[in-house]
């Protein structure tokens, strides 16, 4: 069963999950509802726009901007201290599609999604803009489940050390996401 990204961490209360691996950035807000393993990846969040579009945070003033619901990018955009129109999408893929189709002026997405978008929408004239910040992601574990969290940290340390994580990262992302 597939669940929207913005509900995954809240679903721990139902007992449906013991662990969620879904590129959740480790934030103080999220750490109130789940425990995180040690970080397994570091990502950056960038603006993506058509050529000539807004590529810096300052250039977003008065513009239509897209973001995925429930992600940290939406919260960041909402805090910008100027007038803008934010369009919220169920997934980052839908947000990226909206900028490729010209429905919004820019989207704020993770760099890997932006790089993939350049290939997927090669004829749309997309450009990656400013990196607004970097985040570390971890595996979300049910709050208080220290045994599972510890076991995951041990396994994670092993694959980070033996090179298998780096190999998988290169295979699927063409970069080391650590």
Low-confidence stretches: none
Report strand %: 25-35%
Mean pLDDT: 88
Shape, per Cα inertia axes:
globular
Radius of gyration: 17 Å
User: What order do the helices and strands follow?
Assistant: EEEEHEHEHEHH
Secondary structural class: alpha/beta
- Assembly classification: single chain
Task: Report the count of strand segments.
Answer: 7
Main sheet, how many strands, which sense, barrel? 7 strands, mixed
Helix percentage range: 25-40%
End-to-end Cα distance, whole Å, is 29 Å
Number of helices: 5
Give descriptors for this structure.
5 helices; alpha/beta; globular; seven-stranded mixed sheet; single chain; 178 residues
